[in-house]
Design goal:
alpha/beta; Rossmann fold; 10 strands
């Protein structure tokens, strides 16, 4: 569970959010909406401890964010952004295996339990048939699924995604968001993803968090 307690966010001197409080529960998927530059990415990065709030507190599973060590945070929150990982000689399996880093020793050695989690993560994300493919050969849609598989391998209760449907065609957008919904409802994850796709948000998400500077309006979607 994520709790925002009276938080304030700024970008430079510009106030993005002020005095925002809300809760995101496990087993739900929330679409984060707002115009460009309103702070969607800034909020997600703050929850993932990749940026700071200028006021208030963020609590993760009953712990204030700043009290969590990097390992504790990595076992609670997975973050997926739109940047494509395009490196030579890295297979899909190898990339998904990176998600196990918070649980391996300093040499990154994988145990049999790690391998089982990697295989299950690829199966859930629908990329198990791509395990031996090079990441550089993947389409944008395939790459997004692999990044979600990596987040699943990280085995966190919270998954944050920044514009996961960017650069995808309409069928792939729905397919990807349907997958995220299944992860929230079947795997008990707390999922927040930023998007400009209002139709997808209304039809697939459990709630919408609309950034209306300097407020955040968090409401359930119509049933």
């Amino acid at each position: 569970m994520i709790e925002l307690r009276n938080i304030s966010l700024k970008f430079g001197e510009r106030t993005l959010m002020e005095g925002v409080s809300t809760t995101f529960s496990v087993g739900t998927m929330t679409a984060l909406l707002g115009r460009n530059g309103t702070g969607k990415s800034t909020l997600l990065r703050a929850i993932a401890s990749l940026g700071k709030v200028q006021g208030g507190e963020i609590w993760i599973d009953g712990r204030e964010l700043s009290t969590l060590s990097s390992t504790e945070l990595a076992r609670r929150v997975a973050f997926v952004n739109t940047e494509r990982i395009d490196v030579e000689a890295l297979t899909v399996h190898d990339l998904v295996a990176v998600g196990r880093s918070p649980y391996t020793d300093w040499m990154g050695r994988l145990k049999s339990d790690d391998e089982r989690i990697i295989e299950r993560s690829m199966h859930i994300a629908g990329v198990e048939s791509m395990a031996s493919r090079m990441v550089s050969t993947l389409s944008d849609g395939e790459c997004q699924r692999v990044m979600i598989a990596r987040a699943l391998a990280q085995d966190t209760p919270i998954i944050l995604l920044d514009e996961p449907t960017a650069f995808l065609d309409l069928p792939n957008r729905y397919e990807l968001c349907t997958l995220l919904g299944r992860l929230a409802h079947d795997e008990g994850k707390c999922i927040i993803f930023s998007t400009h796709e209002l139709d997808i948000a209304l039809s697939l998400a459990d709630s919408i968090a609309l950034v209306d500077t300097p407020t955040l309006r968090h409401l359930p979607t119509p049933i």
